[in-house]
Amino acid sequence: MKYLFFNLFFISITLTSFSQESKKSTMDDNNGKTNYMNVLFANYILNELDFLSEEKKQTLNKLNLYIAYNREKEDWTKTVAAVLNFSPTIDIAIWHLWIKNLRIADKKGIEYSPEQFAQGFIDNYYVKNSKVDVWGENQLKEAKLMIKEYKEQLTTKNKHH
Predict the structure, then answer these.
(1) Burial state string for 120-156 with b = 16 or more CB within 10 A and e = fewer than 16
(2) CA–CA dist 141, 56 (Å, integer)
(3) Are residues 114 and 49 in contact, defined by beta-carbon separation less than 8 angstroms?
(4) In the chain, how many domains are there?
(5) Does 159 or 142 have the greater pLDDT score?
(6) Are 41 and 47 in contact, with CB atoms under 8 Å apart?
């Protein structure tokens, strides 16, 4: 347990780059203490969207979270997904909402950071009766198509720069 506490304390110091104002709702529990699982969740989201630095990825892997949660040796993202009981479609939900929110922000002419998105995603994920990562008959198919098209646009855009 001492090992786990040290590692989670280390995570909160080295991995969060969230503003104090927005950090309060997502990264703190009701007693104002850091919710380490939400810190890991936020980093999971940033990693999925390719906004987590290699240094942070390496740091998270060095923490050997799988040991703390009595799991077989695995990448930190797999441990977080298992501990938080993510569905197999969580990554689709992350990308789908990221793209939708980016488009809304673009239309409104406002900046929208990956960190803001991660915090908002987590806040909405835990709301009672949340619809985050809940899919209707055609919604999952449409979300996958939207993500595919978005990533193709990014690839094309990056080739020209």
Answers:
(1) bbbeebeeeeeebbebeeeebeebeebbeebeeeeee
(2) 32
(3) yes
(4) 1
(5) 142
(6) no
Cα-trace Rg, the chain: 17
Q: Which residues contact 71 (CB under 8 A, 6 or more apart)?
A: 79, 82
- Average pLDDT taken over every residue of the chain: 85
Q: Which phi and psi angles does 28 have, rounded to 5°?
A: -110, 150
Instruction: Output the six-digit token pair for 7.
Output: 């590692």
Nearest to 92 by CA among 84, 102, 103, 100: 100
β-pair partners for 28: 34
Question: With contact defined as beta carbons under 8 Å apart, do 45 and 116 qualify?
Answer: no
Q: Quick one: pLDDT at residue 45? A: 98
Among left, alpha and beta (phi > 0; psi -120 to 50; other), residue 50 is: left
Instruction: Compute the distance between CA of residue 114 and CA of residue 49 in angstroms, rounded to an integer.
Output: 8
- For residue 54, what are the domain limits? 2-159
Q: Report d(CA 97, CA 78) in Å as an integer.
A: 21
